[in-house]
Amino acid sequence: MGVKISKVARRAHSYEYVLVVMRHGKADAFGSVDDRARQLTEKGAKQAKTVAKGLMSMDLMPDRIACSGADRARQTLERMLKVFGDKPKVDMRQSLYEGGVQSVLDELQATKTKRKVLMVLGHEPTVSISCQWLATSDSDPALLDLLNLGMSPANIAIFASDQPFKEWQVHSGTLLAVLGPHDF
Asked: Could you tell me the pTM of the whole model?
């Protein structure tokens, strides 16, 4: 079953605020080096570029990106910024590596009202668990089921609301889509 990217984009643009939660691209195998120093693979670099181009095609370039300080997340961001340019405000956060769900909620609280599209770039299982907590109860059950499986490398979840990010709490965002590079 294919995802209609244009339909997701239209739905996202019907809201004032859009949150994109992303897992970093494919990285070197766990245990090959210290976890924080794991590098993005060539496949991961391609995934990052594909997702960035996909977000651009949806007119969902982030105003602000909060990114984990781990190497693979930083490298994912660097690859995406080659597509986005220097427009997004970028904040590197070690807390997104080690802080769990609360670190994602903290990023929402730290986002100024003028920022309309926020991206949080982090790691499993934090990203999928955070998404489960953020999704409103009327979100599509099939999409929620995808989150229960965990997010694959370079997958994104797109949420929307008319409330500024500072006002988001648990179950505040309508889950519009869970997408991977293959969807673009």
From this structure: 0.96
Say how many C-beta atoms besides its own lie within 10 A of residue 36's C-beta.
14
28/181 Cα distance (integer angstroms): 18
Note the pLDDT tens digit of each residue in 17-69.
Answer: 999 999 999 998 877 678 888 999 999 999 999 999 999 999 999 999 999 99
| Contact of 172 with 40, CB cutoff 8 Å | no
Residues in the chain: 184
Q: What is the largest CA-CA distance in the chain?
A: 44
Instruction: Find out whether 59 and 33 touch, Cβ atoms under 8 Å.
Output: no
78: tokens are 């660097």
Distances in Å between the Cα of 176 and the Cα atoms of 41, 71, 161 are 29, 29, 10
Position 32 scores a pLDDT of 67
- Judged by DSSP in three states, 46 sits in helix
Q: Which residues pair with 20 in a beta bridge?
A: 119, 158
